[in-house]
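Table S2 (continued). Query chain:
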Amino acid sequence: MALTLHYHPLSSFCWKALIGLYENDTPFTARLVNLGEPASRAAFLEVWALGKFPVLTDAARGQTVPETSVILDYLDLHYPGSVQFTPADRDAAWQTRLWDRFFDLYVQQPMQKIVSDRIRPTNADRDPLGVAQARAQLQTAYDVLETELSGRTWMSGQTFGLADCAALPGLFYADKVEPWGKDRPLVSAYFERLKTRLSVQRVLAEAEPFFHLFPAG
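Corresponding output:
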């Protein structure tokens, strides 16, 4: 099999790539990376020295592709399927990329700030101000989404795409650390629509055995 995804099933950014692969039933080999295990870590660093997953390798084309948005662009270009992640229309494309970046930068990153603070070894190592800022940023992001989702089925309109692949992972974990609550019905409805996708259901089912590793508040 030409494609190999180096990943961990609990990683939110890995979910984004997996959703894209599963949406189009793209054949690939899943290679689980355990950064806490020296041999697994060393093998992964040989693939991508920065040590950030997911990374897609393509043996047929001799390519190593990091970064989730780039991975989905690569799949669009070289392994296209029924779901086109970024529209060919350039006006629609920049809007799709805008919301892809929105979820990565304004939902995933503050969520990860909160989670990473939970696993710091001592209270002295924690960053309460940074966590408070991350929580505030998430609340602002939820407000933006509640406005923007009016009249939309998916983030690019009526067609599932790149931004929706980015949305599910961030929203899934963000709601656990900083819930959006009952006052944002459009965000809640969008999240429920995302969970009806077979690709999403598969990703969540594969991650479930690892959920106990998620740090509780």
